[in-house]
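User: Okay, second chain of the day. Same drill as before: sequence in, structure tokens out.
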Amino acid sequence: MAKILFKYIWVAFLLTQSCTTTIQPRPNTVTVEGQAAINKSMPLLARKQALQDAIRQASMQSSINIHGQTFANQNNISIDAVSMRTAAAVSNTKVLKEWTTDNIYHVVAMVDLVADNSCTPHQRKRIIATAFPLIKQEQVTAYESQDLTGGIPRELNNHLIESGDFIGSNATNINLYPRPDLAPEIQDRAAYRPSKVMQIATSNGTQLVLSGVIRDLEVESTEYMSGAGPLAFARSLAREVVARRGIGIDIYVHDGFTGALLFQQRYTDSVIGDVWVPATYTVGSERFNSTSTGEKIAKIINQASSDIRQTLSCYPFTTRIVEIKDDKVFIDAGAQERLNVGDQLVVYSTGGDDLNIDGGLSFIGRDKQPAGVLTIMTVMPRYSIGRLEAPARDLGVRIGDWVKSW
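Assistant: Same drill. Structure tokens below.
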């Protein structure tokens, strides 16, 4: 009898454990063929494009929802359109067969896709934080902390750095939005000049630009105060102890390569009680987080950090060419960005006179086209050296051009 009872208890225990087990999504494996034209005798570039075409074909054949768009120019499939717009996460890709016929590169690949739109980043992306201006400066009194416009982006940037997916720097003295109420629109645009986002990214050697605005920190009393006399005076004093404060923060991330807005999210909350933040408190400090308003802002920073990481996890890594010597191409990324010998990056060149070699800036209207594949030969802590399939001069590749992982 005891043995039978033990068996029932053991079965019940196993059933309980199975109910609490987290089931990981299984990859959906498909075998597909991708194609790309071989231009300028550059098979490595065509191979990468054919592999991206195979991934797109795999996404379309699977049950995973995909929002895709393909652009073609002389049978050359655009790399960016595929990599940036697919909702499928590629957990593994294995090339089974590859060959060329009639100047077309063919790749047969086995692709594992999972129903999860997050990826494990291979390289660390550089991001720079700019100021979060207040839309209404009067919502923060002179007796409160003046660290919000610089402290919130600084602390958010620190969270991104601590995640291990980003290399961050701070330029919280720079305000992208002269009219914060119109953000994320940047008003000081000029024709035939790069956007302010692109200028900041180029001058600071970063791929991404973090910005935002503080839309709401208004304090209002929980009591309606009107009239004169002792009662009205008492109510006005109560406002200093018990009040309601709204919190609204907009956060944006732009791509320094194109100036495109990649991330936009509004975070709102409210607090009731002692809503004031003393002037000596800095964002991220223990004392700041111990206040009601500081605690809510800290939660917004934590959530925004998680959202940015998830949104940009599949986004390609980008850096710039800083020097060209003979057949050696030096790029502004190395071991700290997790580059390895043998990595292959696609070089994007303007190939025209609009490139300002001194500043490394290119005009907005100038198209950047994939010019070749750079194979990394040497990796140093802050930079790497690679070789192109053909001489840089023949490909129109110059100092200041961009290289991307896809």
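Residues 28-114 form a domain with the Dodecin subunit-like fold (CATH 3.30.1660.40).

User: Thanks, on to the next one.
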